[in-house]
Amino acid sequence: MAQEKKAPTLAIVGATGAVGTVMIDIINHRESVPWGEIRLIASARSAGKKITVRGQERTVVELAPEAFDGVDIALFDVPDEISAQWAPVAAERGAIAVDNSGAFRMDPEVPLVVPEVNADKVHERPKGIIANPNCTTLSMMAALGALHHDFGLRELVVSSYQAASGAGQEGIDRLQAEIAAVAGKGVGSRAGDVAEALAAAGLPEETPFKAPLALNVVPWAGSRKDDGWTSEELKVRNESRKILGIPDLRVSATCVRVPVVTTHALAVHATFEREVTVEQAHRVFEAQPTVVLRDDHDKGVFPTPAGVVGTDPTYVGRVRQALDFPNTLDFFVCGDNLRKGAALNTYEIAETLAK
Amino acid sequence: MAQEKKAPTLAIVGATGAVGTVMIDIINHRESVPWGEIRLIASARSAGKKITVRGQERTVVELAPEAFDGVDIALFDVPDEISAQWAPVAAERGAIAVDNSGAFRMDPEVPLVVPEVNADKVHERPKGIIANPNCTTLSMMAALGALHHDFGLRELVVSSYQAASGAGQEGIDRLQAEIAAVAGKGVGSRAGDVAEALAAAGLPEETPFKAPLALNVVPWAGSRKDDGWTSEELKVRNESRKILGIPDLRVSATCVRVPVVTTHALAVHATFEREVTVEQAHRVFEAQPTVVLRDDHDKGVFPTPAGVVGTDPTYVGRVRQALDFPNTLDFFVCGDNLRKGAALNTYEIAETLAK
């Protein structure tokens, strides 16, 4: 251990993917960064690629055990099975792995961190791994965490309006191709005519969304789980409980994909231990630096995905006190699923560690 | 009163509008109809227009008091203020007015009818007026009414995915124009780039949706009401209570417009007096002739708006027993807002009266 504190080395695993690309964009736009070396790691297919990070051209190196030598913090933006295999390798080599996959989120020995809510948990990491939550859960966590702190959350009924990019670049490409295929066709008034327009345009029947997404909504996200639930819906429940530290939080979620490129939205019905007025909720949101309140009912001001995509905060609007449910608020929240929902929160965990 | 029963005369007021057009389509496709004369009524602007109804060309007549002479049942598919003025005129002239506007729905002397749920109410009409519910409420009523009958509904948390045609033909045209304006532009990843694409295509800034709808969702439907609520959200609450006959039903709704041409969808979280399993709910839905169950979790079968638009039933899928809320189901429901949500239910009320 040298006497002088060396600036830590950061590695980005999956640097060339959809989330990895946003991660590099975030690093490039930070006023300052605490890192010495920034190492880019990807699969053999992408190794050798040149990417400019903070004005310096860097060559992507191949994912291998020795790629983690000398790394202090390794951010993983790769599929579950790659993380499951390689995050422990990074940890063995001395790095703290911050993982954005689903591989470790519910592991009791891995903290699940949203810095605004439970930053202190970054220090409890017996496996050397910290997990980043699912993007849908994350989209509401900064807002809900602040309310929970003041009013004590007890129940959550959530419906999602999830963007195509939740299914990665493949999802974005598919939605854009579908929009092009239905444009000017006047379809959407007869059962199946959207699917016919997609077929006529030569789009493969196989889609990341299980059904046409253009001019449609699809009540399915993630994979099939028991008792009629999807993986996405159970993540919203289980991850909310873990992040907020409320093991018996009552949660029901219905996750629905909508034809939006990027930015998830959620309609939230949240019940608290104590009464909470709209004015009190507004004050809580305004006091939270990473939440932006867009809620002027008289002027019809509210957040929408296309209005906030590509930005960092969590946006909240349409805050109402439930008419028939005590201690309950209904509100609408939007957050960029590739930024706060993925890359940004992962990076904020790394910044928290570097402090 | 003649000894021989004369086939009743039906009038359609607003015969040339979006819902009126669907009404005539429904009448044309009925196997048989109980009507003698079918009279088409519209504003002066549309009077004189020829429309074929059940193989016979009919001339649209102008809305005037004498237009209702000899009419037994008059179906109104016109804006609130036209209904408010003219439904009582029709009633004075001896017709039963069945009104699809919002003018009379909450009038205690006007029944609000969904034939599957409360057909008997058509006979309690001191004003000679019967109201047809709002399309969003209607989209879930056949399914919810059946569950309420068996299990006793107590609470409802609803998020809507509402189609553009809820804002009439103007809404459909606007969405189609927006889709054409964003197609192939690769927009949706930067705040405001969808709005810029609409402006670049020359679309007027004034829209029925308050915000871009293509590649977006908009948490606003209807008009501004007190305490942060929209008219649409309060209709879901107040009309559900009246139709189901549960004056103290607890309801919270968040109404969101989505880029779908026609067919509303709703994510429903419904709590009952008694326990209800998924199997029991399936049996209830299967026994209800106007509900179609599309729910095979293993095969990923569920309803979507684009898959069912233009058809009559209410479609239900994704039925789940809530994990943390007793006696509670979560499910997803789709219904064509111009058919069951408007023209079809209005026509079914007329059929009920004719029996």
TrEMBL record, chains A, B:
Keywords: Amino-acid biosynthesis, Diaminopimelate biosynthesis, Lysine biosynthesis, Methionine biosynthesis, NADP, Oxidoreductase, Threonine biosynthesis. Phosphate binds at R105. SMART domains: Semialdhyde_dh. Substrate binds at Q162, R257. Residues 9-125 form the Semialdehyde dehydrogenase NAD-binding domain. The active site is at C135 (acyl-thioester intermediate), H264 (proton acceptor). It comes from the Bacteria. Its EC number is 1.2.1.11. It is an enzyme of class 1 (oxidoreductase). The keyword NADP applies. GO terms for biological process: 'de novo' L-methionine biosynthetic process; diaminopimelate biosynthetic process; isoleucine biosynthetic process; lysine biosynthetic process via diaminopimelate; threonine biosynthetic process. GO terms for molecular function: aspartate-semialdehyde dehydrogenase activity; NAD binding; NADP binding; protein dimerization activity. It catalyses: L-aspartate 4-semialdehyde + phosphate + NADP(+) = 4-phospho-L-aspartate + NADPH + H(+). NADP(+) binds at T16, G17, A18, V19, R45, S46, S165, G166, N337. Pathway: Amino-acid biosynthesis; L-lysine biosynthesis via DAP pathway; (S)-tetrahydrodipicolinate from L-aspartate: step 2/4; Amino-acid biosynthesis; L-threonine biosynthesis; L-threonine from L-aspartate: step 2/5; Amino-acid biosynthesis; L-methionine biosynthesis via de novo pathway; L-homoserine from L-aspartate: step 2/3. NCBIfam families: asd_B, PRK14874.1. Belongs to the aspartate-semialdehyde dehydrogenase family. Catalyzes the NADPH-dependent formation of L-aspartate-semialdehyde (L-ASA) by the reductive dephosphorylation of L-aspartyl-4-phosphate. Homodimer. This is Aspartate-semialdehyde dehydrogenase. It comes from Saccharopolyspora phatthalungensis.
